[in-house]
Amino acid sequence: MPSAIRTAVVPAAGQGTRMLPATKAVPKELLPILEQPALQFIVDEAVGAGVDHVVIVTSRTKPAIEAYFERNEWVESILDKQGRGGLADRLRRYGSDVRVSFVYQDEPLGLGHAVACAQPAVGDEPFFVLLPDELMGDSSLLSSLGSVVEATGVPAIALKRMERHELFRYGVVDPVGDARSVAGADVVSFASVVEKPSGEAPSDLVIIGRYALLPDVFDDLAAIGPASTGEIQLSDALSVQASRRPLNGVMSNVSRRDIGNPVGWLQAVVEAGLEHAEYGPAFKAWLGQR
Length: 290
Ligand code: UTP
What we know:
CATH topology: Spore Coat Polysaccharide Biosynthesis Protein SpsA, Chain A
Bound molecules: uridine 5'-triphosphate
Radius of gyration: 19 Å
CATH superfamily: Spore Coat Polysaccharide Biosynthesis Protein SpsA, Chain A
Low-confidence stretches: none
Strand content: 25-35%
Distance between the termini: 42 Å
Number of strands: 13
Number of helices: 12
């Protein structure tokens, strides 16, 4: 069920250093999973959760991102002729049912800074944040986050249990109280976030790249300073918010692929190949022979 949140922010101004040298010329967010760029999946996920305004935080060094969202009737007609009318229709939505706005982050000063750049386009409304280097199987997680915000009036952040040896890569939450069901979702409250813990982590629950936030997060992002890395961290602003009242963590049960690194990207491509209605069987047979 789509929630009442209509705006999604997609931070896409990072440098994609783990995918160099491809990202010299092609933004990480446009690297293809079969024939569709990652950003197409992200926008489809947001639209599936009821979003009609997508705000992309980009960099002037990545003009291809804007080019992708320009309407191009020739491309749409070719897709129609190839029998891919569903995809053509999804591209036709840009500029009509789905508004796509661009805001610029001049320097990659961190995820929190990127989200803060979106404030003028978001206004005084609740909004989703979707990190485009994580692909989710469907829109259900985002919809649940929206429903939990509606039911509680408190921000909701997607969580996943992770193996202990992987925690150092993530923001790890400090849970409070028992897990409970809210609007059909499994919710765990948390009182703070430890970003990339170097020592003992507070739990094995990590933040994955989907958030449903309230506009007061912009005040906290403006008030916090840079972390020791020099970046403005979204997790620091969430910790400030959680110190006022616990935030809601929503346990994810959708499939997730981290495509921001070469192996994760390859896994996503192979999986999409295996699942593809047309190419899947032949690809699976080829892979089996290998
Ligand atoms: P990442 O840290 O995974 O992306 O940020 P990155 O910095 O581009 O990649 P590496 O680590 O150098 O390989 C997650 C998302 O947040 C965006 C990125 O574009 C990415 O989609 N981001 C990150 C920004 O928009 N601005 C920033 O300052 C940092």
